[in-house]
Structures are given as structure tokens and as C-alpha cells.
Amino acid sequence: MIIIMLGAPGTGKGTVGNLLALKLKIPHISSGEIFRAYINSDDEIGKEVKSYVSEGKLVPDELTIRILEKRLQEPDIQNGCILDGYPRTARQAESLDTLLKAQKRSVKVAVNLSLSDDEIVDRITKRRTCPNLECREIYNLDFKIPKIENICDKCGTELVIREDDNEATIRKRLENYHNISENLIEYYQHKDILYTVKLNNESNKVSSDIAKEIEEYLKK
Question: Could you give the CA distance from residue 185 to residue 194 in angstroms, rounded to a whole number?
């Protein structure tokens, strides 16, 4: 079972994807985590990835699909996986379909977490992050408040506001996301495998509720 997680920054697709992976007992694969792992390995592919990331550039499609192909051949992917952060464009989605077809697989569903830009800005500006690299827990002043003000529940580190968690930067990131993702959403919609979960900040739904909703959908 191959599941794609789509959604703008701040929709919580990483958190939901992790919870869904636990429920389905399949790996949650984040493109960002794969890139970081290669960079830390410092092998030839890692050096190539680092050359793009260090300059703030997107890793090219050809290199990304080569890395993803290696990951999808590993034993823990036998029963499927959840892909988060890839594909980012319709072209990447086509490349992924070609790769999966060669492995006699296909994407079962593309889950699109939908939240208005204004609500995303409100959500991200209220985000607090644990800077401990071994923790990196994320909180929100509205719906995931730390037990002790500004202190991480898990490791006790003082929480911080990320430098790019400001409205101007968020709006720019959202503009870029919409420009890139519009065709991708249409791609999966055309294939009739798009499942959109509409979110709002007024709802009492938490990430576990959303993961459960997706799990129920997959049983249909």
C-alpha cells in the first residue's frame, strides 16, 4: 500500500503521516529525512545532495527519484509506505508512477490535507519547536500546549520560535507551494485517487483523529 501525503506547510501532514504509519504498520518516508541521512553519510550521493541543499536549491528530480528508488527497494517497504514530501510536482508524480509500475506497485491514495492560508499563518505563528536535535517535538499555543510554559514535555528543553515562522516568510512559502502543487493535486484527482481532508482551526480534531479518519477511508 503506497500512500502519498499532500498539504501545504503547517497542515500537519508529517505528524498525521507518522501516526497513520504506526496504525498501518508501514514506514513513513520523509524526503527531507532521506536527504539529511545521505548528507550525514557523506558518500558520493550525499555530497551531491549537500551541494544543492547548502545553496538553498531543490534537489533535482533525477537525483531525488534515484534516491527514492533505492529506498523503495529496502526490505521494510515490502508491505508499502507513506511518502511525505515527494512527489512535489506532477512531473515527479509521473516519474514515481513509472518507478512503482516497474515494481508492480501503484499509489493507492493521495491524501490532501486542506487548510486556508489565513489559518495556516495563524497556526504556524503560534508554533513552538524543541531545538534538541534528538527530540524536535513541535507544540502549538492553541491545540498542543506544553504542560510547563515554553518547556518541552519530552526532554525539558526550552522551546523556541523558528526564525522562518513569521507571517511574511509563511505567505511566501504558501505562494510557492500553491504554484507548484496545483497541477499535482489535479494529477491525482484525474487518476481518481485523491482524498481531501478539509481542516479548520476551530475544529476539535487533533492529528490522531485525522489519521483515524484516513484509516477508515482506506477500509472502504
Answer: 7
Q: In the numeric block, which cell numbers belong to residue 169? A: 516568510
Note the pLDDT of residue 202.
74
* Phi then psi dihedrals of residue 178, to 5 deg: -65, -40
To the query of whether residue 127 is one of the catalytic residues in this protein, the response is yes
Which of 88, 126, 144, 205 is an active site residue? 88
- Mind giving me the DSSP string for 11-30? S-HHHHHHHHHHHHT--EEE
Residue-wise pLDDT for 59-96, tens only, equals 888 888 888 888 888 899 989 999 998 898 888 899 99
Task: Tell whether the model's pLDDT for residue 205 goes beyond 80.
Answer: no
CA-nearest of 213, 176, 195 to 5 is 195
47 vs 79: CA distance, rounded Å: 31
Closest CA to 4 of 110, 101, 112, 92: 110
Omega within 30 of 0 (cis) for the link into 60:
no
Active site residue 13: yes
d(CA 18, CA 136): 14
136 a catalytic residue: no
Listed in sequence order, the residues at least 6 apart from 178 whose beta carbon sits closer than 8 Å to its beta carbon are 8
Angle of CA points 26, 73, 82, to nearest 5°:
30
